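As a warm-up, study this chain.
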Amino acid sequence: MGLGGLGLAILAAPAAYAATPSCTWTDSTPAVPTVVTSSQGQNPPAVLQANVGDQISVSCTDLAPGYAIVFASPLAGVAPAAQAAGMTSIIDFNPAGGSSVSAGPVSLPTGTVGSDPNATCPPSQAQVDAGLTNCALAVATLGAVQESVVLVNYAGSGAPTNPTPSAPSLSITNGSHGFVAGNGVNVADGPSGHWWTYLTSDAPNPAALLPSPSVVIDIATSPVPATSNVTVTHATYDNPNCVGAPLPNCGGVGGTLTPPVLGGSFTWPAGLSAGSHTVTVVALNVAPAGTQAATQGSVCAAPFPCVTATALASQQAATALVAGSLNPADGVGSAGNTLQFDVSPVDTQGSVLCQPQFTNNVTINPYAGTCQTFTGSTGSTSGQSTGTLHVTIPITAADDPGPNTIFMVIDPPGGPVPVTIPYTISSLATTCGPIAGGAPGCETDQIINQNVIGTALGLSQTESATGTGAPPNVFMGDITLNGFQQTATGALNTDVVQDIRGTLVGWTVTAVFQDDLQNATPHGNHNTIPVSGFNWTPSVALNATAPPTGPSGFLADVVAGAATSAGFDKSVASGGGGTARTLCSAAPGGGGGTFNCAAALTLKVPAGVAAGAYSAVLQITIT
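Now compare it with the structure written out below.
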C-alpha cells in the first residue's frame, strides 16, 4: 500500500509539484474556528495553531484515489525512509477514497506518535534545538505523495506547548597570537545549543535556495563581511529497532538523534585593527511563520530573518623583536659569534619568504622585489607554527662592525611583511678560527680594565678581589690611591687554542696593547696608566684531561710564554714599538688538540694618576 514512506513524505515536500490538490484544515474548538488551507507542494508549509485536545477536521479536493491522513513526529523527516513510518500515527485511511474527501473531527493528540518513544508531539527540547521544530498533519496518497501538509504549533493556552529553540553558540579556535588577513578561520558549535534554522537539508543547498551562512566581523559596531565557507549539516535520526514492512515497528525502543553541526571556515578580512573583534555567523532562518522557531530575534532585515551566534577572535599585532631576546646583546656580538633572537607574533599559517640577512647598511629598496640580496651573512629560522619565530644568524667578517640591520620577510596569506631588526656589531673579536694551512692569523680582543678609586682623606685602604671578567673584559683589582705607586693584580680570560688541522706545523699566540690605559672620565693632567707597567706570568694546560673528551692533546707540545718584568709594548700607531709578547706556543711537529692558555696579571698604578675607570685593548693574535 506504500504507507511505509508516509512519515518521510510529510517533511520532504517536492517543491516542483503543481499546486492542484488542496485541503482545508479546521480547528473547530476556538470560539472563532481556525481555518488553514494547504496545497500540494506548498513551501513553506502552512502552520496550524492548536491546543492539545482541539477538534481537527480536514476536507480536500482534487485528490488522487486512495489516501491516508497521518500525524508525524519531525524525527520522521530525518530518519531513513524504511524507519520513518515508525514515528507516525495513521488518523484516517481510505484506500478507495475519491478526489473530494472529508475526515474528522479528531482530537489533537499529544505524547508518543508511532512506536518510537522519542517520537513525541510536541517535539522535545533536544529535537527543537536540532531544528526539528514541529510535528505535522498530512494527507498523502498511497504512493507516499503528500497532497497537503500543515505544521502543528502547540502554542495556545493548553499544555504542553511547543518548546522555544535554544540560541546557538559559536566556537572559534584562535591562533596563538590571533589572525592576519587571508587566514582561514575554522568555526564550530559552541558549548550550548545547536539550532541553526528549520533544516531538513544541509546548508548551503542551492537547489533548496539555502545559502552558506554568512560571517560578519564587528556586526554591532563597524560591520566587515568575511568570505564564508561555513556549512551546517542537518540533523539525522537513526533507530535500527524500527523494522518490518510496510509499517515498521520500533518496539518501544528509541534511536539516536544527531544534531546539526556547524563547520567550515571563513577568511579573515584585511583592514582590521590589532586586538579583539566579534565574529558573528548569520544563517537564514527558514522556519515557517507561526512556529516558535520563527519568533526568535533577528538582526537581519525583513523579509529574510536569520539566526546568529557570536564569538570573539583577535587580529594579530605587528611582528616585532621580542624584548630581551638578543643573544649576544646589541653591541656585544662580534665576528665569530652566532646571534640568536626571537620575533613575535608571526602568522602560524604563513612561512618565511626571505631568510634573515645583515644588510651592511645598504638601503632596502621597496621597489626591488620581495627578497633582496645583501653582502652580509644569512641566517635561518624555526618555530613559526608556535607564533614565535626563532632566528639564528652568524656574525662573520663579511658583516660590517657598528650599526647594522637584519632584514627578513615573512609571508602570511595576506601578503609579504618585511621585518627589520637593528643590531650593532662590536668591532672587538672574542673568537676566531680555524686557521687553514698557510692562511694569515686571526685575532681576538680582550679589554684590560683598571679602576682607581680616590678617597677624600687620601689615607684609606680598600680590599680588592682577583679574577677574570666575562669576555672581552678583564677586571683588575681595584686600587685606592694612598700616595705611593701600587700594583694591581688580575687574571687573563683563558684563551682556548684548538688545532685540528692535522698538519702539526705549530702555532704561536702573542699579544700587544693598542694603547696605554686611558681614563674614561679624565680630569687634571694625569689620566694614563702606561702599559710598560703591565706584566704577566703565562701558563698552559690541557682543555680536557679525563675521558670521554680528554686528554685533549700532548701538553709537552705546548710552552707557556716567558713571564715579563719590563712591561708590555703598544702599537706603532700609538707611538710604541709594536713588539708582541708570547702567551703560549707549539713548535712545528706538535700542537694538535685543544689547550688553555692563561696568565696571571699585574699592573703598576702610578701614585699621581687621576681617579677613574681606565681601559685599553689587548690584541691577542694566533699565527
